[in-house]
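Let's do one together. I've listed all components of the complex below, 510 residues spread over two lines.
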Amino acid sequence: MNDALKTDPLAGVTGDRPVVARFCPSPTGNPHVGMARTALFSWAFARHHGGKFVFRVEDTDQSRDSEESYNLLVDVMRWLGLDWDEGVEVGGDNGPYRQSQRMDIYADVAQRLLDGGFAYKAYDTAEELEERREKARAEGRPSGYDGLHRDLTDEQRAAYEAEGRQPVIRFRMPDRDYTFDDLVRGPITFGADNVQDFVIVRANGQPLYTLTNPTDDALMGITHVLRGEDILSSTPRQIALYEAFAQIGVGSGVTPRFGHLPYVTGAGNRKLSKRDPESNLLGYRDDGFLPEGLLNYLALLGWSLPAVDGEEKDVFDLAEMVEAFEIGRVNPNPARFDLVKCEAINGDHIRRLSVEQVTERLLPYFQKAGLIADPATDDEAAVLAAAAPLVHERISKLTEAVDMLRFLFVAEDEFTVDETDAAKQLDEKGLTTARAAHDALAGLETWDTESIEAALRAALIDGLGLKPRLAFGPVRVAVTGSRISPPLFESLELLGRERTLARLSAALSS
RNA sequence: GCCCCGUUGGUCUAGCGGUUAUGACGCCGCCCUCUCAAGGCGGAGAUCGCCGGUUCGAAUCCGGUACGGGGUACCA
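Okay, and this is what the predicted structure of the assembly comes out as:
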């Protein structure tokens, strides 16, 4: 966290070229929140520096990747509003942007690394490797590849092939230490003894992430790599690969800067896994989170807006984040995802919306719940528009509005009253109150909020001598079905005289 | 085992050698009030993982150590 140790993020790599950052998930399973935060920080970094943002998909593992997951990824990026200048679906000069469509490129790069002596074929079997690994570990040595096949002669290779062994291709790590200046952590050094030769192409000819990721970053002109700390320890390998690329003419010859973002953890201290329901990004959309609310909360996990005049501000939108985002301010320590705070921040964002905007955002949730037709009728749209202000500041997720306003949209024969609430509020006294309310409202000439309030106050508070909370409780439960509801008089106006009186009558006769 | 990263109230976070250690979420109380929220006010809650060192002075700098996390794959 000592920024003095960290150099300018733009130093060394850009020159007069613009910043190019990227997000490159692999399409396995549901997109999760840690992924979204990585995307957000990379995106904000690119935008802050006026650079480009590339969205690439790393689908090189056929056994784990799926088309469905790919579609989800695109869908969620669009929902979040993290737009990309180059990448899947939108194209660009350095495509294609799905690694499964770039296999010929990797084969070519691997061959050139082989030809240049930067990589070699290794014929060890899995069993042999395992045995040597165990031994090294037992002796307290690092357990990576021991380099046994580093310098095989032609005869030795021929002999292995005669046995029918298929070689992997391994990258030859230069025998030296690697130090790089991490954008969020400062200088980090890996000793030569601890970074071994690694596989870049499988025995079956498929390239691995270890090759495809740096190859694409080099070819796509990526200047800044922001990613999870889980791959911090593979950074020296990638730097070595870049140095080889410079010599065989892959990419521009410049090594990007790296920044490793901390984990987002769940309960306990475990990294939030794809299987945790809390990590499912699209679940947040279904639950009624606003993309700007979720993103704001995610930004807070490891980053904060600098205080202005001693004032700290933690509710902000993407534009404000872009304006202020500095990678050097990102916290290197992991942060726990707190759903309750996420909801609170989301509520703040809902309240920032205009009534028109909330209404618009609410509509699909009512349609999904089957309360409003798709497309909405003029009448439904009008009721929703009139009701939205009643719940606007009462909800922290859009779906909460659906529950609060259900009584307005539900078909009359499907209207139900919460049993517990009815038991508490519609006892003998409550029914007396409800009857008085019914009679007062039945004779009302003008059906609007003011008249309704005046009539009920006159009948229940002045007439029956009740305290306000005792007076309105039974009416609320009978008419909205719950002890908790939007403001009562406004609700009754929207419900209309007929339905209001019918529900009060129903309560009296049950 | 070996390598790397991290450690400030329950959670997130400010802090960059001198502060009564910042703010947010949550929690408690009060105000407002037709319920629930929102809003306002106030409160509890941190000897800054631990031990040494440097310094007149350390949450801040240095060295150890403990604990947590990650890596150590023909996953990414």
